[in-house]
Write a structure and sequence with these properties.
Chain lengths: 424, 308
């Protein structure tokens, strides 16, 4: 209230403050006169933004929040690149509601409190209309209270363990059941697998995923002959490889992540376990093309991965996406599942904003369920009312050149089910 | 868990597991030797040890790229060249760091902890800026891949044997350097009494620089060898640093023999427990045991008997 009583005399910038809006209006008028024939509809900023977000008549600001330094930079770089590509393409098509997207990039620095702090900065200081970011579940859990308190919108790209559904997050990666159930059904059907050895890094995602896997395997009447976890960053897997050899499972189900991944596959290969042979088959949900770069194609050839996207998908959307991605970021770059999911974020947000006719977070949230993308590189996707995506699950066979060959895809879209009954 | 196996199968599993323990032992010794020299002999807590290792790994990566591009015919020996270059690169960086940073801190050993930790952050970010945040894949010569099949059941990883042989060679070399060469005598003299060593004409500054350089150089060779079994990325050095300090401290910092004995104990304990329990539990039990023993015997397994 006190703000309204302020007179120009109290404010030294008062006089120039009077002039500049006038000038801006003039410029805006000229600009509008030029753009009017091009853009059929460019609603007044006040109408499409009633909550004070960083939206002007020609620009809307969004946030990108990933780690570009620290341990996780290795994984999150691809997501940043994909989000920037999507934003660039959307701008080339005329932006969102006639406004160009500008992004403010913040670095979470692989540190969860930093993520929360930067999320608050983006929402409170910058008032961004949406945030594309986070990678690990830990970082998402850290920013979640911030997004719920200040009512922001987060587009989260990583496949993850599920058990979460926030009105302030759109999950563009798969949750665990989508990845796991289709993968196990496939390996049972085509490889006649009867026994499984579950293996993972020791934190929430592998543990929850293996829990779901075990339930499903036992529901099918098959057997888990071993299940174990190694600390993050573990580099010596010879003992577990011996145990695998002893139990002779039909399938090694591996959810190892990070630097451990490289050590695990190199040592598996060195120990003479040949995944190109009939048995044991190796099925993973944690190795994308990105990880294979570090592991080396020759060390993982013959393994199967269950996820929703592979760079080698032959459809036209994907061909165009891969081409654009390489043009922007270099021809040697590879694109993994999460990178593609991150690419979907800005597009899904654009579609929701246009459907709502507004940048208001509440209206975007209301408009989001049912939003579909026919142009997604992975093919058709649709937002479920639980804020996850309907998507197909595919099985890829790792080749020596570090790419996957898609050997199977589910006929139907898999329904996202973050709280699976009977699996907990 | 052993029901349904023949005696022969059990025997081979035991043999394989013993071998897994030996590989782990070699890996521990290899990563700890450099630190044992620097921490044990110079009392410098080098938190950047892992980053010196990763420098070696990146040198190996560059070397394998170079050979693939320009000398594909000689690719099978590229790994040896890479290890020598890794030693030189890490050693040179070590000597530079000693000159620029460490030598000012000899009287404040605890401050070396902070200084080298800062150095490790600087190095990590430099690797990230130069080589990118992603891990790089090091292509290895074919002869280093795969396993030797002794029987249907016993398969010995070739890179494991390679690491073992390399560790043995480097250990012997370090032993001769430290205990049979005049340089080693100088190092030990400086450690025991810096002022006195200076007074009898030993160039203590040069000795320090060489010692630090050689410690870092060995770290580089270790990093080079670990491209066979682990990852090469800006922060991969962090994966090794805890185990390295554990081995050196547990063994009794000043004793090379202690380092070897402690590496053997920890590796055998860990790989045995790992076989019967899950990996995380094995780590917990190993760490608890080490903590327990260190509480009873704070000086570590072996100590040097010197009058101070």
């Amino acid at each position: 209230m006190t703000r309204h009583t302020q007179t120009p005399a109290q404010s030294p910038t008062g006089s120039s403050g009077l002039r500049s809006p006038l000038r801006r209006l003039l410029f805006a008028g000229i600009a509008a006169a030029f753009t009017l024939p091009l853009l059929p509809f460019n609603a007044n900023a006040a109408d499409v933004n009633t909550t004070g977000l960083a939206v002007t008549d020609d620009v809307v600001q969004v946030g990108i929040l990933h780690s570009v330094t620290g341990t996780m930079a290795i994984s999150e770089t691809g997501s940043v690149q994909a989000e920037k590509l999507a934003i660039k393409q959307i701008n080339e098509m005329g932006g969102v509601l006639g406004r160009k997207i500008e992004f403010i990039q913040e670095d979470g620095a692989s540190d969860w409190p930093t993520f929360a702090e930067k999320a608050k900065k983006l929402l409170v200081n910058d008032k961004v209309a949406a945030v594309f970011g986070c990678w690990t579940s830990a970082s998402r859990k850290a920013v979640l209270p911030v997004f719920e308190q200040y009512n922001g919108m987060l587009y989260y790209p990583t496949f993850y363990e599920g058990l979460e559904e926030s009105p302030n997050v759109i999950y563009t990666g798969q949750e665990a059941t989508q990845q796991i159930i289709a993968g196990i059904d496939w390996v049972v059907k085509t490889k006649g697998a009867k026994t499984f050895y579950l293996l993972g890094s020791d934190y929430i995602w592998p543990r929850t995923s293996n829990k779901i896997a075990r339930k499903h395997i036992e529901k099918l009447g098959l057997k888990v002959v071993g299940e174990e976890y190694y600390p993050l960053g573990h580099t010596q897997f010879n003992s577990v490889i011996n145990k695998i050899r002893l139990r002779k499972p039909d399938v090694i189900y591996a959810i190892v992540v990070g630097g451990s991944n490289v050590a695990f596959y190199k040592q598996l290969k060195a120990a003479g376990i040949d995944m190109t042979k009939e048995k044991p088959a190796l099925l993973t949900i944690s190795v994308t093309e990105d990880e294979i770069r570090g592991i080396g194609g020759e060390n993982i050839v013959g393994a199967y991965a269950a996820m929703k996207y592979f760079q080698s998908l032959p459809n036209d959307n994907n061909q165009a996406f891969v081409k654009a991605f390489k043009e922007m970021w270099g021809k040697d770059i590879v694109i993994g599942d999460v990178t593609q999911a991150a690419y979907l974020g800005p597009w899904l947000w654009k579609a929701a904003v246009e459907k709502a006719g507004s940048f208001d977070i509440d209206k975007v949230r209301e408009a989001s369920p049912g939003i579909e993308l026919t142009t997604a590189p992975e093919g058709y996707v649709r937002i479920h009312k639980n804020h996850h995506l309907w998507s197909k699950t595919r099985i890829g066979l790792a080749k020596p050149d570090g790419q996957y060959e898609v050997v199977y895809e589910t006929k139907e879209l898999m329904e996202p089910d973050p709280f699976p009954e009977g699996y907990q | 868990m052993f029901s349904g196996y023949t005696l022969g199968e059990l025997g081979s599993i035991l043999a394989m597991q013993g071998f897994a323990g030996l590989i782990l032992f070699s890996v521990f010794v290899l990563m700890a030797l450099g630190l044992a020299i620097i921490f044990g002999q110079m009392n410098v807590i080098n938190m950047a040890h892992g980053e010196f290792m990763i420098l070696g790994a990146y040198v190996t990566y560059l070397c394998s790229l170079f050979f693939q591009e320009y000398l594909p015919a000689l690719f099978s020996v590229s790994f040896f060249v890479a290890m020598i270059l890794a030693f030189i690169a890490s050693g040179a960086l070590g000597m530079f760091v000693e000159w620029a940073l460490i030598r000012h801190l000899y009287k404040r050993p605890l401050d070396t902890l902070l200084a080298t930790w800062g150095l490790s952050l600087v190095l990590q970010q430099s690797y990230r800026s130069i080589f990118g945040a992603r891990e790089v894949g090091v292509t290895l010569p074919d002869w280093l891949l795969g396993a030797i099949d002794l029987t249907d059941f016993i398969q010995i990883p070739i890179n494991g044997i390679f690491v073992m042989v390399l560790t043995a060679l480097i250990t012997v070399a370090v032993y001769f350097l430290m205990f049979r060469s005049s340089w080693g005598k100088q190092v030990r003299a400086v450690v025991q009494n810096r002022v006195m060593a200076g007074a009898v004409g030993i160039n203590t500054e040069r000795t320090d620089r060489m010692t630090f350089g050689i410690g870092c150089g060995i770290a580089g060779v270790a990093g080079s060898a670990f491209t066979m079994i682990g990852s090469t990325g800006p922060t991969a050095g962090q994966l090794y640093i805890v185990d390295t300090f554990l081995v050196v401290v547990f063994g009794g910092a000043a004793s090379l023999l202690g380092t070897i004995a402690s590496a053997f104990t920890i590796s055998q304990a860990q790989s045995t427990i790992e076989f019967f329990m899950s990996g995380s539990m094995a780590k917990v039990i190993t760490l608890l045991t080490v903590v327990g023993i260190l509480m009873l015997r704070p000086q570590g397994l072996f100590t040097l008997k010197i009058r101070r």
